[in-house]
Amino acid sequence: xxxxxxxxxxxxxxxxxxxxxxxxxxxxxxxxxxxxxxxxxxxxxxxxxxxxxxxxxxxxxxxxxxxxxxxxxxxxxxxxxxxxxxxxxxxxxxxxxxxxxxxxxxxxxxxxxxxxxxxxxxxxxxxxxxxxxxxxxxxxxxxxxxxxxxxxxxxxxxxxxxxxxxxxxxxxxxxxxxxxxxxxxxxxxxxxxxxxxxxxxxxxxxxxxxxxxxxxxxxxxxxxxxxxxxxxxxxxxxxxxxxxxxxxxxxxxxxxxxxxxxxxxxxxxxxxxxxxxxxxxxxxxxxxxxxxxxxxxxxxxxxxxxxxxxxxxxxxxxxxxxxxxxxxxxxxxxxxxxxxxxxxxxxxxxxxxxxxxxxxxxxxxxxxxxxxxxxxxxxxxxxxxxxxxxxxxxxxxxxxxxxxxxxxxxxxxxxxxxxxxxxxxxxxxxx
Length: 431
Fold this sequence. Notes:
This protein is an alpha+beta fold. It has 13 helices and 14 strands. It starts with a helix and ends with a helix.
């Protein structure tokens, strides 16, 4: 069979060259289409369910949230297993599906099941899905270099301006903010004053919620002009919260300021983000969407950052602290250098030992064609270009070159012997 293929190839060399050229062109398009990343994605096919129920202990979270969610999510189709994790105020459920399951199909199945079990959970606990990213989806970390702004203002810029702008970049699943203070109004109640005025915490909560509301009326026309009636009741300052009446005692209104202290402060933090030992910073993590090209996503995010920088306050700029694009570029440069070096070494070896440049060309041509064809197979099996796959290609080049050298040397040897025999026959005839 092999002899017939070789014989057919020798007799139809132009067809073989045409097929090789077609494979090489197809491979070039495959190289451009193939996703590029620095590290292979070995994470499991999972969907994360996150539930926040602040102020509760881990044991209560385990009993009221984690256990009911785990037991109800175990019956999903094409599922491997379900893991649960409980901590103070938060519950995490990791639903692991089989490797061949589409991630978005899996997310739909989890959402369907959550819609049926959410009513059985405690009030205020609303399960939600995590981002559609993977365990290696953190492709870019950045901080805000803002020496003239405090941490609360920096976090407000990150949460209400930068985050929304970068989330619109194609291929980005989530922008996870970190550092700084999340501004909030806090009402610190004095228990002695509550006892004196005979009030309770639920009464204060109800009063604040009732006064922080807007409601619509109706529309009416007068003199050809339409008017819309509505109430404007959203709280906008510390003074408005302090002046909210809680209860009426003997004709006197008991306000929030009479039993509590209202202040603007930051949410309680469990940690800080310090950069290079120079102080706290505020920033974000760019989480790449499942199956995206990491190199292209990073380039798009950096381009978007240039646009966002124009709207930042004076003196505020981005400081990229982790960029996987640099590692990706180093990986590509490494394989490119390896290919060039191997092609040069192969050429020298063949020319020195065979002293035949046509044999060297025939071997060198195999390298780019084979590499281009390998990227066609990478796309077919949905494998990205990363350190592992590119290293495998670089190692396989040695096998390709060895085969080419052995075949060329064998052909060269047989042709030499045949030529010598032919010369002997010619010399015999002359004699």
